[in-house]
Amino acid sequence: MSFLASELAARELPPLLIHSDGTPVTAESWRVRRAELLELLQTNSYGRTPAAPGEVRWKILSEEKNAYAGKALQRKVEISFDTPRGPFAFPVWVILPTAVPKAPVFVHINFRPDMPDRYCPAEEIVDGGFALVDFCYQDVIKDSHDGDFDKDLGALFREAGVPRQPDEWGKIGMWAYACSRVLDYLIAADETDWRHTAVVGHSRLGKTALWAGAQDERFYLTISNDSGFGGAAIHKKGTGERVADFLRAGSWDWYCETFKTYLDREDINTVYDQHMLLALIAPRHLCVGSAWLDRGADPKSEFLNCYAQNEVYALLGKTGLVTPDGYPAADTGLQEGTVAYHLRSGTHYFSRTDWGYYMRYFRQILDR
Question: Looking at residues 266-289, what average pLDDT do you find?
């Protein structure tokens, strides 16, 4: 057994390629297994996502035709759609490079409503030949750590004051739902190469990007930056954050109520783990980024999770993560496979170095 295979075996994860009835998964039965994995994550972690609306609407709020030294058209657009309790709207920044008709797109979930932003180098993205749609997650539902779901988007899918159901969606689910509505808009507007759209986020928004890409198979590439526990990191026998950290911070409301029941049970959990989340992205493209000093996000567990996907991608006729048989050193990029990974020097941050890795990988897979 190789070193990485033994490291993965030591985590004692629930099998990815065994159906719930105990039979082996085949390429022909993968869709059935995919539905089983999705059910496990909805039930135990993120909660259930409501059905997509029948349509999205949009209107242009402002426009700058010569943004970024004349290299792009920048708009502020309001996206709206109907819900069971009325319409909902949120703003997005849309940046289209003038030199590239119908450019491939990054959908970036941001912490702030600013553009450009310290986590989103818009001009560099335009220079790379990509379009960008950026929205602030707080415009979907506030990340207030107060367990209040009777506001913003959350209020439109539940009866006020009623206790949450065990598998009712958390805020990660709501933010991910908005990502799919952005993709709806891109398809309807038809100004970009929307068939080649990457969803990307950092930290809690990296968790969101993964959940969006796992559910919505229209996303061509899913990118997670320093997403850690509840994101790209394996939970079982990990060394980063734990359920207790989310309960203490109040950020348990990112998840469903059942998530709380795994307090102090992470290392004995035989029901689900985050390798199931990444498997839901197969056979599409996946890119995970970690930071060497980001102990909370547990880079080893993020990398090992990428390695864990190789059996799924192989089953589906794809090459997963191409890596030497060992944990990578700082400033290593592994971008030959359908699953890519990089480990950056430094701490928990979404840096231009990270964006450089993601843009190079996106361009590389487009050119294959």
Answer: 97
Residues 6+ apart with CB under 8 A from 296: 228, 229, 240, 241, 245, 348
Based on its alpha-carbon atoms, the radius of gyration of the chain, rounded to whole angstroms, reads 20
Which stretches does DSSP call E strand in the chain?
56-66, 72-83, 86-97, 105-110, 131-136, 197-202, 221-225, 285-291, 332-334, 339-344
**pTM of structure:** 0.98
Q: CA–CA separation, 8 vs 12, rounded Å?
A: 7
Q: Which residue has the tokens 């030497």?
A: 324
The strand pair at 197-202 and 105-110 is best described as: parallel
250 Cβ neighbours under 8 A, 6+ residues apart: 145, 146, 147
Amino acid 160: pLDDT: 87
Residue 146, pLDDT above cutoff 80: no
Which uninterrupted H or E stretch holds 30? helix 30-41
pLDDT at 91 over 80: yes
Which residues are 77's β-sheet partners? 60, 92
159 CB-near residues (< 8 Å, 6+ apart): none
Tally Cβ neighbours within 10 Å of residue 57: 15
Question: In degrees rounded to 5, what are phi and psi of residue 94?
Answer: -120, 120
Two tokens, residue 74: 């920048």
Q: What is the pLDDT of residues 93-120, one digit of tens each?
A: 999 999 999 999 999 999 999 888 989 9
What is the tens place of the pLDDT at every residue in 59-75?
999 999 999 999 999 99
